[in-house]
């Protein structure tokens, strides 16, 4: 539908956005943006720096209210219960938000607790990203790439049907990128969905693409602008 270039599917839409607009500070960032995601779907956001990919992810995570438009989950308006929406997703932003004095495994438990979830899969999650031997290491002693892997382990430590990932492969070594791709595909195969912004293409099957720069806010026209035609 619209300009998000979806793959054809007869499955019911789970997560959708209609006519979404975003304002940050006093600047309109994008407008009129639509997307549909079905179970197992993946939406890859592209666009140049500053086009609004991170802003859109924050809107989808109910961390930033849309300036216009509507998000729905199974047909229900997300705005009616933003907390329920946040409980069904994992949001991975640019910042890792790890507690440096806690160990790797304690960080996963801490985050799961904050989200009202159990980090039952924490040992598996650490193993998947090659951090099994570092589970009891304070995070302040981890390298930048290890912290990034720990941050991604958080997503695997507790289940959530929707993953929102902002540049998830930045700082990862090649092996960890392959792990990330495999985990995203496994999540989708189990009916999960992912929306991700990335400048580094990931090997994922049947993704929908959405170029955020294709949805600029409407320029002010002479009809809208009371100062248009002024002579100074
Ligand atoms: N907290 C904020 N307050 C005001 N403006 C902001 C804020 N955060 C971002 N912006 C502006 O919103 C616009 C979109 O930023 P955003 O981070 O969403 O872009 P992006 O497409 O993710 O960029 P990049 O590819 O560099 O990560 C930019 O012009 C940016 O300056």
TrEMBL record:
PROSITE patterns membership: ABC_TRANSPORTER_1, ABC_TRANSPORTER_2
Keywords, in A-Z order: ATP-binding, Cytochrome c-type biogenesis, Membrane, Nucleotide-binding, Translocase, Transport
UniProt KW Ligase keyword: no
Span of domain ABC transporter: 15-231
Pfam families, per database record: ABC_tran
Origin: domain of life: Bacteria
Coiled-coil residue spans: none
UniProt xrefs under InterPro entries: AAA+_ATPase, ABC_transporter-like_ATP-bd, ABC_transporter-like_CS, ABC_transptr_haem_export_CcmA, P-loop_NTPase
Keyword DNA-binding applies: no
GO terms, molecular function: ATP binding; ATP hydrolysis activity; transmembrane transporter activity
Name of the protein this chain belongs to: Heme ABC exporter ATP-binding protein CcmA
Organism encoding this protein: Rhodovibrio salinarum
């Amino acid at each position: 539908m619209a300009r998000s270039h979806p793959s054809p599917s007869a499955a019911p839409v789970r997560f959708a956005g209609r006519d979404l607009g975003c304002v940050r500070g006093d600047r309109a960032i994008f407008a009129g943006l639509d997307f549909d995601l079905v179970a197992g779907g993946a939406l890859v956001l592209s666009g140049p720096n500053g086009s609004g990919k991170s802003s859109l992810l924050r809107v989808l995570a109910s961390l930033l209210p849309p300036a216009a438009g509507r998000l729905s989950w199974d047909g229900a308006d997300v705005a009616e219960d933003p907390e329920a929406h946040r409980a069904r997703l994992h949001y991975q932003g640019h910042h890792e938000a790890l507690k440096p004095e806690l160990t790797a495994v304690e960080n996963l438990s801490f985050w799961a607790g904050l989200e009202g979830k159990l980090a039952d899969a924490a040992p598996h999650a650490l193993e998947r990203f090659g951090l099994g031997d570092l589970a009891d290491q304070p995070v302040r002693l981890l390298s930048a790439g290890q912290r990034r892997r720990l941050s991604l382990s958080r997503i695997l430590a507790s289940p959530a049907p929707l993953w929102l990932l902002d540049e998830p492969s930045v700082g990862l070594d090649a092996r960890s990128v392959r792990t990330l791709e495999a985990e995203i595909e496994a999540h989708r195969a189990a009916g999960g969905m992912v929306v991700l912004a990335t400048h580094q293409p990931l090997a994922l099957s049947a993704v929908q693409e959405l170029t955020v720069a294709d949805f600029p806010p409407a320029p002010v026209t002479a009809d809208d602008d009371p100062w248009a035609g002024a002579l100074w």
